[in-house]
Amino acid sequence: DENKTRHLLSLDGAKERLHLFKANLLEEGSFDSLVDGCDGVFHLASPITLSPADLQVELMEPAVKGTLNVLRSSARVPTIKRVIITSSTASILWTGKPLTQDDVADETWFSDPVFCEKSKLWYVLSKILAEQATWKFAKENGMELVTLHPGFVLGPFLQPTLHKTGEMFLNEITNGVQTPFISGYVDVRDVAFAHVQAFEVASASGRYCLVGHDVNIIEAVKILRQIYPSLTIPKT
């Protein structure tokens, strides 16, 4: 689909260094030719939908089976030194325990899948199960692995279309904040840099949270008003 790739092909150096391949997350072996000869693999793709019509098809299979398919292909290539998986703070924060302002979440926290299933937090559950499957596979196959856990990712777009995270944030702005909530925000450029570091720094291992600031959505909207005073943003 040229509409989804044109912005990539227009990047500086893309003609010389960028190669696009067709692959299917749900098809085992689909990534074999893609990762052949690589030194490292970055797996970033996982669907975001908060109210799936078909839980297994829309969320669980792409998140869990899709990740395992990428890992299986990577495990067959002896030149691959490390695999980087983009997870989310979703697999860290939802412990089911009450939090106070003094609590500081870190990489030792794990979201509770039982709590998330009871609460119907399906996207969160998909990230939990995908990470569990990832670490199990890595340990069983002696794979060097790093998982990165960004919060709410915002920042400059490469693509001309609105991505899901941006859409969720835009809805809060245009419709007015219905329920105030605090999110951990992180700049997409910092997330990109963290991925490079996770691969290039030899001592990198385990899990890493990627959060720049914890901000209430109401405060985030106020910041937008200050930066873009010409925008019409509903009062909260």
**Count of helical regions:** 10
Shape: globular
**How far is the first residue's CA from the last residue's CA?**
39 Å
- Give the low-confidence spans: none
Strand order of the largest sheet: 1-2-3-6
Average pLDDT across residues?
Answer: 90
Strand content: 5-15%
Q: Give the C-alpha Rg.
A: 19 Å
Secondary-structure-based class equals: alpha/beta
Q: How many DSSP E strands?
A: 7
**Largest sheet entry:** 4 strands, parallel
N-to-C SSE series? HHHEHEHHHEEHEHEEH
Proportion of helical residues? 40-55%
How are the elements arranged and paired?
Layout: H1 2-9, H2 14-17, H3 32-35, E1 40-43, H4 55-75, E2 82-86, H5 90-93, H6 113-118, H7 122-141, E3 145-150, E4 152-154, H8 164-175, E5 182-187, H9 188-200, E6 206-210, E7 213-216, H10 217-227
Parallel strand pairs: 1-2, 2-3, 3-6, 4-5
Antiparallel strand pairs: 5-7
Helix pairs in contact: 4-7
Features:
single chain; alpha/beta; 236 residues
Question: Summary?
Answer:
By secondary structure, the chain is an alpha/beta fold.
Walk me through the structure.
With 236 residues, this protein is α/β, with parallel strands linked by helices. Helices cover 44% and strands 14% of the residues. The chain has ten helices and seven strands. Strands 1-2-3-6 form a four-stranded parallel β-sheet, sandwiched between helices. The model has no long low-confidence stretch (mean pLDDT 90).
